[in-house]
């Protein structure tokens, strides 16, 4: 039996599909060596645009919950994402994040009452196997700092993803997304100023086009669809959709940059797709009674 809501799965999948192009855009359009500038200009304009459209501010506890989610899903994640993208080959940087589903599965079993099933764990291991195949076959130097940044970004977003599910959405997906993007972007500004400083050269038209694409498509639209999907689907299953990002990154490098596509990478891509099939053709995991009561009490508060 397919997932409960195939349409929701397909719409949510558009988010990681667009994220897979981030690495191509970063390497080809953005100014070199400016990951924090890229993070700020991706998050803050997108958040302010959505905030202007929704005209909705946080209420109550969401004045602190939104910044927490903004730090995890946006601030820390974006900074480490772009650091990894600048220090690693695109396919490698994109695929390391495939460890995220296993992190989400463990956190979801403790925080939102989703059972940590053997099938989901095996699917996570299968996805990581696909990652290993893609990384080992990728060309280019594997930078230790870049790998650490990619793993750290995956862990941060995994925590933010599960907390987003646990805390729910007090307003529309557009509004909640705007709060996170604005708070995450604002928190990145002092880091940008202290580490990189402001650019000394004006942005080129290529730079502007790259930032505009990432802000509008890869951030405003993609994150709205992602947070919407988190509320409609089991969060442990949604996390596996992130595996589509490295597949797109590798294929984009092959199509647009004429990068070689080895049989190992093809096998890795097939393995990732099999992992997704295992997750979305399995029954929805049942929650334990204790976890279900805890989750209900949290959301009724």
Number of strands: 0
Radius of gyration computed on alpha carbons: 19 Å
Uncertain segments: 285-301
Roughly how many Å apart are the termini? 35 Å
H/E element order: HHHHHHHHHHHHHH
Helix segment count? 14
Major sheet attributes: none
Q: What can you see in these coordinates?
A:
With 301 residues, the protein is mainly alpha-helical. The chain has one domain. The chain contains 14 helices and no strands. The model is unreliable at 285-301 (pLDDT under 50).
Relevant terms:
single chain; 301 residues; mainly alpha; 14 helices; 0% strand
Please give the structural blueprint.
Layout: H1 6-19, H2 22-29, H3 35-54, H4 62-87, H5 90-96, H6 100-111, H7 118-137, H8 144-167, H9 173-195, H10 205-232, H11 235-240, H12 244-256, H13 263-280, H14 289-300
Helix pairs in contact: 1-10, 1-12, 2-10, 3-4, 3-9, 3-10, 4-8, 4-9, 5-7, 5-8, 5-12, 6-8, 7-13, 9-10, 12-13
Short description:
The protein is an all-alpha fold and 301 residues long. The chain has helices spanning 6-19, 22-29, 35-54, 62-87, 90-96, 100-111, 118-137, 144-167, 173-195, 205-232, 235-240, 244-256, 263-280, 289-300.
């Amino acid at each position: 039996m397919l997932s409960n809501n195939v349409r929701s799965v397909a719409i949510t999948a558009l988010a990681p599909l667009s994220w897979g192009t981030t690495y191509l855009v970063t390497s080809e359009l953005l100014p070199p060596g400016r990951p924090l500038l890229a993070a700020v200009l991706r998050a803050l304009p997108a958040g302010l645009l959505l905030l202007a459209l929704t005209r909705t501010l946080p209420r109550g506890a969401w004045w602190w919950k939104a910044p927490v989610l903004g730090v995890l899903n946006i601030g820390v994640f974006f900074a480490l994402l772009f650091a990894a993208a600048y220090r690693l080959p695109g396919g490698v940087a994109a695929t390391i994040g495939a460890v995220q589903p296993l992190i989400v599965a463990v956190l979801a079993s403790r925080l939102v009452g989703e059972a940590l099933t053997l099938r989901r764990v095996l699917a996570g291991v299968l996805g990581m196997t696909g990652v290993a195949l893609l990384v080992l076959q990728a060309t280019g130097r594997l930078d230790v700092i870049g790998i650490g940044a990619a793993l750290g970004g995956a862990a941060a977003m995994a925590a933010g993803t599960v907390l987003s599910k646990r805390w729910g959405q007090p307003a529309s997906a557009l509004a909640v997304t705007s709060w996170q993007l604005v708070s995450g972007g604002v928190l990145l500004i002092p880091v940008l100023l202290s580490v990189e400083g402001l650019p000394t050269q004006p942005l080129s038209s290529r730079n502007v086009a790259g930032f505009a694409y990432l802000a509008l498509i890869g951030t405003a639209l993609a994150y709205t669809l992602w947070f919407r999907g988190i509320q409609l689907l089991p969060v442990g299953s949604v996390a596996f959709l992130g595996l589509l990002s490295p597949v797109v990154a590798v294929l984009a490098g092959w199509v647009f940059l004429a990068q070689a596509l080895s049989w190992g990478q093809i096998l890795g891509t097939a393995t990732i797709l099999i992992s997704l099939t295992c997750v979305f053709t399995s029954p929805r995991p049942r929650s334990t009674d204790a976890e279900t009561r805890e989750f209900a009490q949290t959301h009724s508060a």
